[in-house]
Design brief:
The structure holds two protein chains of two kinds. Chain A is an alpha/beta fold. Chain A contains eleven helices and 13 strands. Chain B folds into three domains: 263 residues, no CATH class; 88 residues, 2-Layer Sandwich (Alpha-Beta Plaits); 80 residues, no CATH class. In chain B, helix 3 packs parallel to helix 8 and helix 8 crosses helix 13. Classes of the chains: A alpha/beta, B mainly alpha.
Chain lengths: 328, 495
């Protein structure tokens, strides 16, 4: 052993201690120099994302709006999309499609507070038939998300149809610049950024403040954080969101319509069976087209006027837009 | 070769994993009708304490007979074969002491202060008989369920594996965490300190196993007094001398270690040694009983939700009246584990010292999910009664009020009514008036100003939870009007 040999050259303990002290002070000085800052906390600015444009160009021979009446949901949805040009015009092989139904509440399908699960399942089936690689279904629920997805019937219906349910956790949001009049940078569910195509599947229902919850308002469900503040300027918020999110397609569920006590509902007496699907690519037109089910007029709904003035779409769907109405 | 120690090890792993799996499955997604509260129900301490506090053996608690009756004949097998707390303590002790050069004879011998648990048991039992159930503070199953729900599972979620969508938070959770860590750490100084010194359930099992015919027996002819049997002794029951039957966990390691084959588990044989009775002094038991009996009426002078209706003590739907609630709640916090919104919180002193860690709703954290009835169905003791959804959505747990000085439409003339949007009752308990107002600049604005209809409000608290003025919400729920109380009422008619 080295230490046991008195002839070997060993560093004296004093010298060793002195060297250690030097090394320590050097280290301290280096840390001071390297980390010197005028800021109290080192902050990393997160990346601010921008939303993609998910729209596709559809030849003018096809109508922009399609109203289908009937009882068989899968047939209605298929016929509506077929009339608009067919699912292969909207979804290409190998793409990842995000469906955004309204799954805000822990309510059964019959209450009509959430999108009809059959409509969502029909869209999953259609997208898969067009060769989509994955079909994701998401929403930022207001009630407990696990309960909302399960009891709305949407989770079992989507899984059965072959889609994936993506319930956002706290880590599934990205700071996104919505570039709106009042909505600037908000946390937006990251699945929207990851998808190639986005299909909006709202439900038609009553809302006290905005008068109605339709396709444009359905984009509330991509926001995280304290979105309850949006109520203070609800009409501008809705228009900001509609301008920011550009979906490939919108399929409005008007099979059951919640006419009162919305958007939560809770009583079957408030639900009216309208057995209708309204599909199209112009959200303003679709929303305007829905008003008759809630006994509203375009003038009553402020966000339609704002969105139309901004050029998001047209509320005069009857005259300005090629549309078709039929039954299956 | 004796197989009993190996079988015991297999059982201990099985039961510990079962405990973890059942507690993990205690949520909306995995519940599916499993008996998730099984371990809480089979605790004989809960059986006796709730029997004394309210003269009932509630539903699943009858299952504890599967522990009580075998214990009478076989001995205190529960502690090292079934009890997840005992098993965990054993593992932790083993890890701490494996590499330590310690005197096994000293650390695994019985010491007189181990009898403390019998006095603690007496205190808890007498208190329960008077109508204050505190057994859950020390019941090892409640203790571990509480510690895992409040500390371990949120920690797992925080560090790696997503168990919850939102990181759960618990009021005063750090206290539960620190106590848990302290108990685990105590094993470093004395193997299974909790089990040997504190555990009232172990004490109870010790009492009921005092006359069991089956026990560890030492053949005095074969024994060479080498004391190797002490090396891994879990109960510190002195198998080398006159065995203390009430301390013995039947861990069987003494049989495994004995080089002479002098020890066996079973009936008495010809040369079997004598056994020592329960090490308690009758005088001290009487002292403890009298002290508790004196303490109890003194505790009645306390201001708590039993003696005075308290705004912040909002109990989960289905809760029985406060006096009965405190006779039934074992503070196991299963309800908080199963609650989807994290609204159920362990009370610190809101419900008085007696109600420590009992469930209260803190609507700033969550709200009572309208169609959810899980807490009542999970509660092992019936402090929260199971309700059907139809009944639950009519069960009032409190009433909402507006603080008009903070409410945006009332105080600042700003449009809002988020509370009305989220109000889940049908018809909505929150309604509004369109009001024409003159703004600062002289312009006229029509605003919706909200009101509460107390007839329809069930106190779920979603309005409070979603209020944008969220640091101190402009609409808030207090316990008044709660269904379970006859005194905590305000309106004469229509409740």
């Amino acid at each position: 052993m080295k230490e046991d040999n008195p002839n070997s050259k060993t560093v004296s303990p004093e010298r060793r201690n002195f060297l250690k002290a030097c090394a320590l002070s050097l280290g301290a000085a280096a840390a001071g120099v390297v980390f010197y800052s005028k800021e109290p906390v080192k902050r990393q600015e997160g990346k601010i994302h921008v939303l993609k444009d998910h729209r596709v160009v559809i030849p003018g021979v096809y109508p922009k709006l399609c109203i289908v009446h009937g009882k068989d949901v899968l047939k209605m949805v298929t016929a509506a999309v077929e009339k608009l040009g067919g699912i292969s015009k909207f979804v290409e092989k190998g793409q990842r499609v995000l469906l955004k139904p309204n799954v805000g509440w822990d309510r059964q399908p019959e209450i009509a507070a959430n999108t009809n699960p059959e409509v969502v399942a029909a869209m999953v089936t259609l997208c898969l038939s067009a060769g989509a690689k994955e079909v994701w279904v998401t929403d930022v629920s207001i009630n407990d998300p696990f309960r909302s997805f399960a009891r709305s019937g949407i989770e079992p219906a989507v899984l059965k149809a072959g889609g994936k349910v993506k319930i956002p956790t706290e880590n599934d949001f990205l700071s996104t610049d919505l570039k709106g009049e009042i909505l600037k940078v908000w946390p937006v569910v990251s699945f929207l950024h990851q998808a190639d195509r986005v299909i909006n599947i709202p439900v038609l229902k009553h809302h006290s403040l905005s008068k109605c919850t339709l396709s444009m308002k359905n984009w509330y469900g991509i926001l995280g954080a304290k979105r309850n503040r949006l109520h203070q300027e609800i009409n501008i918020s809705i228009s900001d969101l509609a301008a920011a999110v550009k979906p490939t397609l919108t399929v409005m569920d008007a099979t059951r319509v919640l006419k009162r006590n919305g958007p939560t509902g809770g009583n079957l007496a408030d639900v009216s069976a309208e057995n209708t699907i309204i599909a199209g690519t112009d959200e303003v037109a679709i929303d305007a087209c829905c008003l008759k089910y809630l006994d509203l007029k375009t003038e009553d709904v402020a966000f339609l006027k704002i969105a139309e003035a901004r050029g998001t779409g047209t509320s005069d769907w009857k005259n300005a837009l090629r549309h078709e109405e039929f039954s299956v | 070769m004796n197989k009993l120690p190996t079988i015991r090890r297999i059982y201990s792993v099985f039961f510990f994993v079962l405990f973890l799996v059942l507690l993990f499955a205690t949520d909306f997604r995995h519940l599916k009708g499993y008996e998730t509260a099984l371990f809480l129900e089979i605790s004989p301490l809960t059986f006796f304490a709730t029997l004394l506090s309210s003269f009932t053996v509630y539903k699943g608690i009858i299952l504890s007979l599967f522990v009580i009756i075998p214990t009478i004949f076989l001995g205190r097998f529960f502690c090292s074969w079934v009890c997840p707390m005992g098993i965990l303590n054993q593992w932790v002790s083993h890890i701490f002491n494996k590499r330590k050069n310690i005197d096994h004879n000293k650390i695994n011998s019985y010491r007189s202060f181990f009898a403390f648990k019998y006095y603690l048991l007496t205190f808890l039992i007498v208190l329960a008989a008077f109508g204050s159930l505190q057994s859950g503070l020390f019941d090892p199953i409640s203790f571990l369920t509480r510690s895992f729900t409040i500390s371990l599972f949120p920690a797992i979620n925080h560090s790696a594996f997503t168990m919850y969508l939102k990181q759960p938070i618990f009021s005063g959770g750090i206290i539960v965490t620190l106590i848990f860590i302290a108990v685990m750490f105590s094993n470093r100084f004395l193997t299974r300190l909790w089990c040997r010194v504190l555990c009232p359930l172990g004490a109870l099992l010790g009492v009921i196993s005092a006359f069991s015919p089956m026990r560890i027996r030492r053949d005095t002819k074969k024994c060479t007094d080498c004391r190797k049997c002490l090396k891994y002794c879990q109960g510190a029951c002195d198998p080398h001398a006159a065995l203390r039957q009430s301390e013995c966990h039947l861990c069987m390691t003494c049989i495994e270690e004995c080089p002479e084959g002098a020890l066996h588990y079973g009936l008495k044989k010809q040369h079997s040694s004598e056994h020592l009775p329960l090490d308690v002094s009758r005088r001290r038991i009487i002292e403890t009983t009298i002290a508790t009996a004196v303490l109890f009426p003194m505790m009645r002078s306390a201001v708590n939700a039993r003696t005075l209706d308290t705004a912040s003590v909002i109990r989960p739907p289905g809760s029985i009246p406060e006096g009965d609630f405190l006779r039934r709640c074992i503070k196991c916090v299963e309800c908080m584990r199963v609650c989807p919104t994290n609204v159920l919180q362990p009370a610190l002193f809101e419900a008085g010292l007696e109600g420590l860690w009992s469930p209260v709703l803190i609507n700033k954290i969550g709200y009572c999910e309208h169609n959810c009835v899980l807490c009542g169905h999970i509660c092992p003791t019936g402090a929260i009664m199971p309700l059907t959804v139809e009944k639950k959505i009519k069960t009032k747990i409190g009433t909402a009020f507006y603080n008009r000085g903070r409410c945006l439409p009332w105080a600042m003339n700003i449009e809002c009514i988020v509370c009305e949007e989220v109000c889940p009752t049908s018809p909505k308990a929150i309604w509004f008036q369109n009001t024409e107002l003159i703004m600062r600049d002289g312009s006229i604005k029509t605003l919706k100003r909200p009101f509460i209809d107390t007839k329809h409000c069930i106190g779920c608290g979603i309005c409070q939870n979603k209020c944008p003025v969220h640091d101190s919400p402009a609409v808030y729920v207090t316990s008044i009007g709660e269904h379970r109380s006859r005194t905590n009422q305000m309106v004469l008619k229509g409740n």
